[in-house]
Amino acid sequence: MTATAPALTALAHGWCALSLLHGRIESHLEHALQAGHGLSVREYSLLDVLSRQRDGEGGHLQMKQVADALVLSQSATTRLVTRLEARGLLARYLCPTDRRGIYTDVSGEGQRLLEEARPTNETALREALAEAAEDPQLEPLVRTVEAIRTPAAMATA
User: Fold this and answer.
1) pTM, whole model, 2 decimals?
2) Which residues is 91 bridged to in the sheet?
3) Angle, in degrees to the nearest 10, between helices 63-70 and 74-86
4) What are residue 131's phi and psi, to 5 degrees?
5) Cys-Cys crosslink for 43: which of 28, 39, 48, 72, Cβ 3.0 to 4.6 Å?
């Protein structure tokens, strides 16, 4: 197979379209969240991920799990946590069963801001997808994104 083989070209074209869709959506979300709530997309995502933790044994995420969920390095995740902790949106505390472990949780102020920002995020996401659907190159990807359902959403559908 050569570098210009049609299958390779189609694969590369698909990857470029997916990257373009991601970039457009992220840019739209970034603008809306910054303007409305003073949050970046990554800050919003961190608050969202941490707010979905559950209390109890094994219910809190380790920093590596948070980093994986955000698609960030562990050091970038730690810097992000530190920044939001300084703003009073997160709190860190020692694991009650293993003093070496440190948990991070959303503070009351962080939860309030997240709840205020969720509708903005949802609206901006819908707007970005609607705009992208007008591009024939991106429209099939938009349909795919819109067709994806979480297990909870499928159970209620």
Assistant:
1) 0.85
2) 105
3) 100
4) -65, -45
5) 39
